[in-house]
Specification:
This protein is an alpha+beta fold. It folds into two domains: 3-55, no CATH class; 60-193, Rieske [2Fe-2S] iron-sulphur domain (Rieske Iron-sulfur Protein, 3-layer Sandwich), CATH 2.102.10. It contains six helices and ten strands. The strands form three sheets. The protein has a four-stranded antiparallel β-sheet with strand order 4-3-2-5, with no helix packed on it. Strands 1-10-9 form a three-stranded antiparallel β-sheet, with helices on one face. α1 (3-17) packs across α4 (44-55).
């Protein structure tokens, strides 16, 4: 993502949250083809806007299907302020749900990855299937309907073995264009049937925009 794309996304969000005059002036100061003004990289307000207007509304690559090869396999992904469970259910379907219990809002899974038959909240033992269905909730009022308390789903799309998620209620349709472009190149490699031999995590101690611009 280029600085211009970032600025464009920030400006799109500006209409919705009504930037104060100083912030609007900062947007207007940017020069096409050059780095953004310094606050875009170091100011907490702009970082929060990045989370709300970019990371919470766009499709993000988070994992490969090979990382959750068997039913019950899961991994957790932290995306901005949200934690998401990516899991393969008993029917081999890959699903994504918010990592939040529907009872008291407790975090459900704390490990980065693992395998389990059910998802059990450590707080009051509400129990969910790997498909997000609420299976057990003790001592509820008469008429309580478990079907109304499944885990909140997160939009998920698999493309030739790669897993993308989007936190938005209405994910952008441009994922179809991405799929059409990359699928012919990825499919011959059979990534869905691959094995994870080694994983290396690179943590950039800096603003994400600088990382993208330098790459």
């Amino acid at each position: 993502m280029t600085a211009n794309m970032v600025a464009g996304a920030a400006e799109a969000g500006a209409e919705s949250d009504r930037l104060d005059p100083a912030a609007r002036a900062l947007l207007d100061e940017r020069v096409v083809g050059e780095s953004l003004p310094a606050p875009f990289y170091v100011d907490r307000e702009w970082f929060n806007r990045d989370l709300d207007e970019i990371f919470a509304k766009r499709w993000i690559f988070v994992a490969t299907e090979a990382e959750i090869a068997e039913p019950g396999d899961y991994l957790t992904v932290n995306l901005g302020r949200s934690s998401v469970i990516i899991a393969r259910d008993d029917e081999q379907v890959v699903r994504a749900h918010h990592n939040v219990c529907r009872h008291r809002g407790a975090r459900l899974l704390t490990d980065d990855h693992g395998s389990t038959g059910t998802i059990v909240c450590a707080y009051h033992s509400w129990t969910y299937g790997m498909d997000g269905r609420l299976m057990f909730a003790d001592a509820q009022a008469p008429g309580f309907d478990k079907k109304c308390f499944s885990l909140r789903p997160v939009a998920l799309r698999t493309i030739a073995g790669l897993i993308f998620i989007c936190l938005a209620d209405e994910p952008p349709a441009d994922i179809d264009e991405v799929a059409a472009i990359v699928t012919p190149y990825l499919e011959p490699h059979g990534l869905g049937n691959a094995k994870v031999a080694k994983q290396t995590d690179l943590i950039e101690n800096g603003n994400w925009k600088l990382t993208m611009e330098n790459n």
